[in-house]
From TrEMBL:
Native source species: Aquisalimonas asiatica
Name used for this protein in its record: Tryptophan synthase beta chain
GO CC term, one of those recorded: cytoplasm
Source lineage: Bacteria, Pseudomonadati, Pseudomonadota, Gammaproteobacteria, Chromatiales
Reactions performed catalytically: (1S,2R)-1-C-(indol-3-yl)glycerol 3-phosphate + L-serine = D-glyceraldehyde 3-phosphate + L-tryptophan + H2O
N6-(pyridoxal phosphate)lysine: modified positions: K113
One Gene Ontology molecular-function label: pyridoxal phosphate binding
InterPro entries: Trp_synth_b-like, Trp_synth_b_CS, Trp_synth_beta, Trp_synth_beta/beta-like, TrpB-like_PALP, TrpB-like_PALP_sf
Assigned keywords, A-Z: Amino-acid biosynthesis, Aromatic amino acid biosynthesis, Lyase, Pyridoxal phosphate, Tryptophan biosynthesis
Record-listed E.C. numbers: 4.2.1.20
Residues annotated as transmembrane: none
Cofactor entry: pyridoxal 5'-phosphate
Function as written in the Swiss-Prot or TrEMBL entry: The beta subunit is responsible for the synthesis of L-tryptophan from indole and L-serine.
Amino acid sequence: MTETVKYLLDETRIPRQWYNINADLPEPMAPVLHPGTHQPVTADDLLPLFPRGVIEQEMSSEREIDIPEPVRAAYRQWRPAPLYRARRLEQALGTPARIYYKYEGVSPTGSHKPNTAVAQAFYNHQEGVKRITTETGAGQWGSSLALAGAMFGLEIAVYMVKVSFQQKPYRRAFMESFGAECIASPSNTTQAGRAILADHPDSTGSLGIAISEAVEMAVQRDDTRYALGSVLNHVLLHQTVTGIEAREQMAMADDEPDVVIGCTGGGSNFAGLVFPFLGDQLRGGKTMEFIAVEPAACPTLTKGRFAYDFGDTAHLTPLTKMHTLGSGFVPSGFHAGGLRYHGMAPQISHLTDLGLIKPRAYEQLECFAAGLEFARAEGIIPAPEANHAVKAALDEARQCRETGESKAILFNLCGHGNFDMQAYTDYLAGKLHDQEYAESEAAMALSGLPSV
């Protein structure tokens, strides 16, 4: 009898609605505040940054939100994404656990990011926007928005964190291939960037700095809006196509997860897989364990403070209550660039505070080791970010080997590492090392949290 490895859905099974977890929260989230007045923001307050369609989703409490047909049509290029049963990995580990992974690396950009990039580009195009500015860490988000911009005829300007700009030249080439402009951040093109360079000429940059530059450029032109690749409610909403598909595919496997895992930087790929399952649990379904995995060098959930903070370094964004290391915190230059953010999505922060999500932090080297162990069994080299989820899944599977439990473990393999081979080359050559968490710098950044 053949044992199924891939669980596939045809294009008719692409979700028709996104899932909004705000409808099922056991306690409401703290409001988003205006940075000047500290009063709850209104839709009009956000209009200089986002199109109205996105703002409505950001503030919505409806459980299901229809996916526009042009977005579903674009999704057909890579969705539904496959769910794999990691049978070779199970055998290599000698575990009774059943390991599944949802593979988002089949998208044109090799990650989950187009799920929201296409949606945000559509809403901007629909409202006559001509140009979008954004930031990117590892380059997966910038690549995805560049692709989406080409699909909908939009100019795209991407501020890429300088250390990643230097580490990942092929990501820059990918963005430029689709017509986007890619600028190393901090840069001399914005007031925020020039201020950082004046104090720190050799700054390696951060997502907070890149966000400041992108927001500053967006508000200067009436035909320009800003797009964010993670953190905000509407971004996490768009990503739930991942979990909605995975739920149906797990049913095809006649199985149901006991543990659901994702890496977390801003939180979008974790939420995309987890929220549909967590929503089922909140409505009385099966109780599961949800593990959010972050880098030990930027431990937002495990060591950050749950407080109001700015999303950017120059304090141009609204204030959100989230787990944060302080908006001025600049993480060290470890290779998982998509996880180098000082804050965490407010929804994930809120759910962690309620005890529904269990955070975990790992060092860089152990994650690369886990990624190669996975690759040698399953044939896919994960992105450095995804290695954090792989590491947690391996740990859970080994625990099952010790206890004899046969748990179903599901994780999000949110992207491949084909653009990250220099990082693997350096790891195999012994050139990488674990990056220290700058606790004193975080303490200094946290001392500057706004008084709310």
